[in-house]
Every structure is written in C-alpha cells, then in structure tokens.
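Researcher: I'd like a candidate sequence for this fold, 275 residues long. If you have to choose between options at a position, lean toward the conservative one.
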C-alpha cells in the first residue's frame, strides 16, 4: 500500500505534458477537432478511519456522425479504503472528430463518501492532492466546436444538521468561442501547500491546475461527519456547431453510438439512506 501511495502521489504531481503534446503536435492538415478533460483527487493521512464508505462512478461516451469521423472515451475511478484510510477519485474524457458532420461527447463523474465519528476535543484532519487538466484543439474555429470542462472538490458535512463545515472547489472550462474560465474557493480550515495554474491560449488551448494541502477541523463536541468528494469532467467536439445539431440528428438520420456505465460500492446498506 505504501508503494501505491508513493507512486500515486508522484503521478498526481507530474505535469500532464502528454495532454499538451497531443494538442500541439496535431497536424493542421488533418482537419481534426480534439477535446480532453481530466480531474484527479487523492486523500491521505487521515487522523482516523471512516466507519463506513461509499463510492460511485458514472460515465457516458456518445458519438453521432454523418459523413465525418468521431471517437469518444470516458472513464472514472472511485476508491475509499479504511485500512489505511486512503481515497482516490479520477475522471478522464477525450473526444476526437475530423471532416464534417459529427458530434462527440464524453462525460465522467466520480464520488467518494466516508462517514467519521469524531470524539469531543479532537482534531479531524487529512491531506489532499489533485489536479484539473483541460485541452482543446481546432484548426477552423468558424466551423468546428470543441470544449472541455471540469469541477471537483470536497465538503465536510455535519450529519446532525447537514451543515457544511468546510469545503474546497475548483472548476474550469475551455471553449472555442473564447468563454474560458477557471475559479476556486475554499473554507478557512482548508490550507494549501501549493496551488499552481498554467495555460496556453489560441486555437490550441490548454490549462492545468495542480494543488496540494490539508484540512484540520477542531471538534469541541462529539460529532458524526461525512466527507464527500466529487469529480466531474466533460469533453465535447462538434461540426457543425451545436445550434445546427437538430438538422444533423433528425434531418440527416445520424447514427448514434452510446456507452454508459455505472458502478457503486457501499460498505453499509444504511449509508445510502444517509447520502
């Protein structure tokens, strides 16, 4: 387990240069449209183990085409262990299209939840590491559309009254229309060891956000809390633009290929009632 943690920690902190390379090395003569999105969270060094855990993943890859070529992929991982207490959440989507007449969308969601019974006069704490990576490429923005977005973070909730005690959230989006955004917010008990953001703009867009930190919350009274971590990303490519999709779907008799998977695990049946 220790080797796994060390490997995963290094893996999360590496700059995802392969994302940038896949965008920048694409030849304009290929007339390709590409969108990539990836979100990752790792939780370690919990002050105590959870009494129960719940994980869930949901992925959807859709390809609609008439005349063009399109390929999509969506994947998600959710894990929360108790001995030792370690949590990991990952989502990844890619969409690729070329020529004319296609729509490709990849969506992924990953959720992990742990219930902790915290004693009075006790500090509840853990470390976290993660990143959000988004990339798009178009060689003809007037006709091609590509977008990538993501939203990930966590919340610590008092189950007695459902109050959110602490939180962290980061979200971003890239679009060929130029409406790009990247925001984050956190509560006072969430502290960062590092928080970096970098981006490349233009027809080949790339943005990455990497962070690590910790949460430390003092409980004066005995409290049962839920740590809920969420991770959602999406990639989309289209020709023509989304406003012309009704003609593509209904007028052209497009072929739709969809793939959807759901996986969830719970250590206690009653946990789903609390969720």
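Model: Candidate sequence:
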């Amino acid at each position: 387990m220790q080797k796994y943690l060390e490997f995963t920690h290094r893996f999360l902190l590496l700059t995802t240069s392969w994302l940038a390379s896949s965008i920048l090395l694409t030849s304009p003569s290929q007339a390709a449209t590409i969108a990539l999105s990836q979100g990752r969270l790792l939780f370690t060094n919990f002050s105590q183990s959870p009494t129960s855990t719940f994980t869930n993943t949901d992925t959807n890859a859709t390809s609609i085409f008439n005349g063009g070529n399109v390929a999509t992929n969506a994947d998600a991982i959710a894990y929360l262990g108790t001995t030792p207490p370690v949590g990991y959440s990952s989502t990844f989507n890619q969409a690729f299209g070329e020529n004319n007449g296609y729509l490709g969308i990849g969506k992924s969601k990953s959720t992990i939840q742990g219930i902790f019974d915290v004693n009075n006069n006790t500090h509840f704490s853990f470390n976290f590491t993660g990143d959000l990576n988004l990339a798009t490429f178009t060689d003809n923005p007037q006709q091609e559309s590509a977008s990538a977005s993501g939203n990930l973070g966590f919340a610590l909730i008092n189950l007695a009254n459902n109050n959110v005690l602490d939180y962290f959230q980061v979200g971003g989006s890239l679009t060929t229309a130029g409406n790009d955004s990247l925001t984050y917010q956190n509560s006072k008990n969430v502290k960062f060891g590092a928080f970096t953001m970098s981006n490349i703009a233009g027809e080949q867009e790339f943005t990455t956000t990497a962070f690590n930190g910790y949460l430390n919350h003092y409980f004066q009274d005995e409290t049962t809390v839920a740590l809920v971590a969420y991770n959602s990303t999406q990639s989309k490519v289209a020709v023509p633009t989304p406003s012309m999709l009704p003609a593509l779907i209904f007028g052209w008799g497009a072929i739709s290929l969809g793939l959807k998977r759901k996986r969830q695990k719970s250590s206690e049946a009653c946990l789903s009632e609390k969720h």
